[in-house]
Amino acid sequence: MAAANHSPSSPYSCAKDSGPVIPTSSLVTFLERVQETAFQTYERSKFDHKDFIDLSLKFDLSTTVKAFDEISKTENGSVSTKDFEEFIGKWFKSAGEDLVYVEPMDFETEPYGFLPKVENPEVRAWALEVHGLWKKLSREVSSSVHDHPELHTLLPLPVPGMIPGSRFREVYYWDSYWVIRGLLASKMHETAKAIVTNLISLLDTYGYVLNGARAYYTNRSQPPLLSAMVYEIYNRTGDVGLVKKALPALLKEYQFWNSEMHTMIIHDAENCDHSLNRYYAMWNKPRPEASAIDKRFASKFLNVNEKQKFYRELASTAESGWDFSTRWMRNPSEFTSLSTTTILPVDLNAFMLRMELDIAFFAKLVGDEAIAEDFLTASHTRKKAFNSVFWNENMGQWVDYWLNYGAEPKEPQTWEAQNQNQNVFASNFVPLWIDLFNSGLHSSGGKGNKKSSKFRPALCCWDCNLFDKFGTPMHMIVEGLWRSASTEARKVARDIAERWIRANYVAYKKTGTMHEKYNVEKCGEYGAGGIYRPQTGFGWSNGVVLTFLEEFGWPKDQNIDCN
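Structure (tokenized):
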């Protein structure tokens, strides 16, 4: 299965990687050494690379480094399990000790008006259990992180928030959108606002919202959904104060995503130029949170420049949130063919369009007509780009666009039909989430107005390696279809939502927990595979299922099992 209709040239050449790099901290660099030693010491099945990069120091860094250097090691860098574990216990606090549990300020066991459309008592009881998981995921940064940040990779945040769960012990960017949607279904408005406060804090400090609240994530962001979070909270609460606080930060984030490294210009068939966005991490080394593994993948490359370019692609793929789908690979069977920086992703540009529309709305709300007009104009310009660059008439879908390798951001590229990725991914349908695109689903003909019956088979055919992100882009697609005027589109939306609810319910009853990943081909089976073991908890999964239950409900007599 080719990534596009042609085979682009090899993504890695001997040319020097000249992109920006954000330096990491001395603590992160040292913990990468500890991680590498753990990788050499433990069996792969017993090793989670993130456990070692999340450790906190008991003593100052220089003293700890000196003690580490004095451990007796073999030629390959390993130490005895006994010596290594004694060293870790003496010199480090356990991963996760830098966060402390805190009772959510607005949690109620059964909030007033909770999921009124859920009439089935069995489903309602389960939904209340999922709602109760918010208490287990609530955390605040420990006082030690605020007082001695040099001892921690966790970054200080001003207020408590929600973590995804398990190995993901810190706040993450785009996960937070679905966490917030779930919190709103749970009537936890103040906790939802607190998450936005923390993300704005990161944006104010670094100039962009980090992938997550760790020192090793300062080199990349994640899909820009902050404006959507603010909109959803405002839509429920009418909190204009939150909008006023968020608007300057959103303008800053918009500037970041429209910087030179994140934009490319496409010259279309009608002689129009379109500035569109891509993922581009500010890093060309192994990702610290997975350094030992990244180095093994990069070992196939013979020179430093090739390795650096591969490392940048790894980090940029992580920035996409779709790590690691074959969507980003020139050769779907070869992991090291990742080429994320040479793709204009349809979903990222949909998120940018949503941001433009949100900022225009917020600016008008607070009385800044000039900003409102500018961003409304920008949104109309981007919509034209969707029709010219991403729309594939034969498929009836928007698709990713592959850039010609080696082009510079300032050099416009001429649009070529063969550069459209004609594989089907859930991301192809994310534009339906934007009202500008779903309004025409009731009719046929015209760009973006294909009958929704085309979506049903296509939505079942994307990259099945992407178990974990099924619930997130699919939520957006379902929401878009449900808002359309088409009876068929709304039927598809309900069908997808009910299948997702069933899958979550059956897996929960089997295992007693919510999962990060689900197997989209087998109802009730949770996902497997990937660089780390699938996790439980789980923030965005809880959020998606509560949001679906709030919107679609569950009739009293409707069966909930997979049959």
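The longest strand covers residues 263-267. Residues 364 and 372 are 5 Å apart (CA to CA).
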